[in-house]
Structure formats: structure tokens, C-alpha cells
Amino acid sequence: MIWVDYIIIGIIALSALISLVRGFMREALSLMAWVLAFWVSWTFFRELAVYLESSITVPSVRFGVSFILLMIVTLVIGGLVNYLVGQLVEKTGLTGTDRMIGMFFGAARGALLVGIAVLLAGLTAMPADPWWHQSVLTSYFQDLAIWLRGLLPPDIADKFRYA
């Protein structure tokens, strides 16, 4: 094992540890809140921008501000829901189970993050470097990255190369 393997293990372990502390419900709700916030912002930023025309005259700034405002509001509401559900989990006495499942969720999230990082590395010359081939773990995550690349449109996927 070389330095990159230890970084990969560290990313997965840190993600698992964070999820162990927070628990599955909080992690899952947090992820859903971010996805929902992006969807709400992307879907409704133009509608909110209409109300900001008198305050912000530059359209690109107005659209950006409305997008960010919608993200913030949705994330705050998601945070409140997350807090309430977290309190409910504590009251029911399921915190041990919730945290254990959270740890597995966090490890899976960490592995996905590493897979995405390896996918993005395919845009660079890194996969041709000697350390890439000396690593014990990069080949496994390269397989994941190649699978993720298959989910992309062909004109974008063609830009990702692995030696």
C-alpha cells in the first residue's frame, strides 16, 4: 500500500465516523435536504427572480441571488425537520441501531466520493502515473469510476480516460 491507499482509507473512515456520530436518519435526511434544496432552487429561481427585479437590476446576479436564497431557505427547513426527526429517534431509543446503520451509510458515501474523485482524475494524466498503478485500491475505484462514466452522456464520457 502507498500514500494514495491511505488517503482513500482515510476518506472512507472519516465519512463512516461522521455518520456513526450523526446516525443514519440525520445523514439520510441531510442528503435528501441537499437534493431537495437543489431541485427547489433549480425549479423556482426564475419565479423568485421576478420579485427581485426592483432590487437587483442585473439579471445574472438576480438569478444567482434567487437560486442561493431558495437553497438557504430549503436547507434551513430541512435542518429543522432533521432536528425534529433526530429528537424522535432519541426518544424511541433507536440511537444505537441508527448510528450503526449510519456508519455503513457513511462508508458507502465515502466510497462513492472516492469513486467520483477517481472519475474526475480520469480528466487528468493521473491514471498514467506510476503511483496510480502501484496503488492497491485505485483499480477497484477505477472500476467504479468506469461504471459511473457509463451513466454520463457519451460526448461527456469520452473525455474521461484511464491508462
TrEMBL record:
Main location: membrane
InterPro entries the UniProt entry points to: Colicin-V_CvpA, CvpA-like
Any one annotated GO CC term: membrane
Signal peptide coordinates: none
Residue spans crossing the bilayer: 6-24, 31-51, 63-85, 106-125
Protein's cellular compartments: Membrane
Biological processes per GO annotation: toxin biosynthetic process
Membrane topology note: Multi-pass membrane protein
Sorted UniProt keywords: Membrane, Transmembrane, Transmembrane helix
PANTHER family: COLICIN V PRODUCTION PROTEIN (PTHR36926)
Name used for this protein in its record: Colicin V production protein
Organism in which the protein naturally occurs: hydrothermal vent metagenome
